[in-house]
Amino acid sequence: MPTSVTFDIPRDPTAPGHARRAIERIADQIGPDVVPDVKLLVSELITNSVKYGGDGQVTLKVDADDARRLRVEVVDQGVGFVPVARDRPATDDGGWGLHLVQTLSDRWGVYEGSTHVWFEIDRAGGRRPAPRPDRAAGHSHTALTLRMARERRPRGPV
User: Fold this and answer.
1) What is the rounded distance in angstroms from the CA atom of residue 86 to the CA atom of residue 32?
2) 105 by DSSP, 3-state: which?
3) Label partner for 50 (CA 20 to 30 A): which of 8, 18, 39, 154?
4) What are the contacts of 91-96 at 24+ separation with CB within 8 A?
5) What is the pTM of this model?
6) Which residues, including other chains, have CB under 8 Å from residue 26's CB and lie 6 or more apart?
7) Measured distance CA(93)–CA(90) in Å, rounded
């Protein structure tokens, strides 16, 4: 199987699930230690594409050719955007996608004037290196999700 693959994901509410299954199909090429983070980030970016992008399919590109890093790209037909830092309280719903990408990836960006978002995760011989000192402890997807859940407080009667 080639280690650079492209998936066309239908633009509908099932798109994040399609993207996660695409990642699962190439999990052996990605590495089991990074698959959970990749699935989470892909889900977030695909969701953004479905909610805010243009018409047509969303393209998911995964490049696992380099043993030292994994690169993932999500491209849609949107008009482009400028990424901004999350400035809402942690108790507010939504808006976590790019924050998660920034937290869990080693590098990420947006091609200027487009809705072509990419991220990279470093690998060491197919394995994630030890956490860097500039990353706070506990930034695995599980720890971050749990911390986010603890920070959420009910906002009134249910």
Assistant:
1) 30
2) coil
3) 154
4) 91/151, 91/152, 91/153, 91/155, 96/44, 96/148
5) 0.70
6) 1, 5, 62, 64
7) 8
Are 82 and 89 in contact, with CB atoms under 8 Å apart? no
Q: Is the pLDDT of residue 137 over 60?
A: no
Residue 60 confidence (pLDDT) above 90: yes
91 band by pLDDT with thresholds 50, 70 and 90: low
pLDDT for residue 134 is more than 50: no
Determine the Cα–Cα distance for residues 81 and 112; give it in Å rounded to an integer.
8
Question: Which tokens in the block code for residue 2?
Answer: 């080639």
Instruction: Report the C-alpha gap between 54 and 47 in whole angstroms.
Output: 13
Give the DSSP letter of residue 135: S
